[in-house]
Design goal:
By secondary structure, this protein is mainly beta. The protein has 2 helices and 50 strands. The termini are far apart.
Length: 454
Amino acid sequence: MEKSITSYLFQSLLVWFAICHLFHADVTCAQTIHVDGNAGDDSRTGLDDWTNAVKTISNGVARAATHSADTVLVSTGFYQLTTNIVVNTGITLRSWNAGALDPTNTVIDGQNVSRCLYLNHTSALVAGFTLTNGNGSGNVNTNYGGAVYMGGATAAGGMLSNCIVSGNTAIQRGGGVYAEGSNCVVTDCRLTGNEVSEANSGGGGACIYYGLIRNSTLMDNAVDALTNTTFRGGGGLYLYAGSAEQCRISDNHVYSTGGGVIAGGVNCRLTECTISNNVAIGPANGTAGGGGIAAISTVNAMFYGCDIVANTGSYGGGIMFRVTGNGMGGIVSNCVIHGNFGTNRVGGIIDSCSANAFVPDIRVLNSTIENNREPGRTGGIYLRRGAIIDGCQVRHNLGNWYGGVYIEDRAGGTSMVRNCLIIGNTNTGPDGAAGLTIPSNTFVQIAPLSATLP
């Protein structure tokens, strides 16, 4: 009996090691590579512990592939690059300071000669670094992604987490980060002081195609090219058919479109974001504007639970919808659009339609539009036939022609203004109206005015 048990245990152990050898999947088999920029040596393997650490991150990532490691730990330090780090396997690359992430003291410097990181694997995670002085040069498109290039195809991916992305430049897209792929995720990051030098799409802080950016700060980024080209800009963020959740997007600027955000494509989502103090100033020709958000040819876009505050734009201080076909537009729901300033047409929300024949699909629901100003035209909302405004408070806005809501008599479709409180708005000029101005073929159901202004 004892011999039988011993034989069974021995056979089980052989099977265990066989599985480990074949699949390298058990935790017993997993390897960790150590990188120490101060005490490391690239002639080592990086295995076992810090006494065997390699010196450079690129060699650490290469050792991970050689030894089937799943984690690369990088000690605090200053890592200067001459070419970008490539992560194209499902590893975790992270900073290490006594077990904690330390992005402040673990710096990857592109030295203005290279991008910092190319990341392309749906299971890869890069966490806890400062990525700076990247210029987009690397093993893939050198016009995109000053510090980081993620993915590169519709279903590509990777995750960038808890990083500081600062002081990087790209020529065309994603001054800080360019991410293309439905499995790309940027989370808990801070993107500041990044720039796109030519306005071919833009995204001074980040350019996200199909992916997700969440719980991140995009501040003091820019698209600095002087251009009046339609659809170019996005000082903080260029978001195409992707999502942004719980982000803070502030103090970004462009000389074109979308001081804070350009949104494009189908099913673009902004959820519970704060978009404030952004600037989009350009020619007064309808192609520039959207101090907070510029929604360009969007279909089924959703801006939900956002605070859009104190932005400035030539066409639409808060939000500009640029409609280039029937059914384009989106939904603004449960948002606060407050204190925005328009320098040419509208302080709050505008539909800037490229042709009078198009019937947009723009709905403003359960939102507050207040204290927006535009000295030339409309203070609060300027939309066209086909628009729906439901359950909103439009108050204390100021315009020269129209103070509160103006629905223009262009295109077809039936507009609706329902269950709204429109009060305390002002028009300063001799023409127009202070509160609500609508064309025929508009259904109106207005809530009773209160005795005192809210």
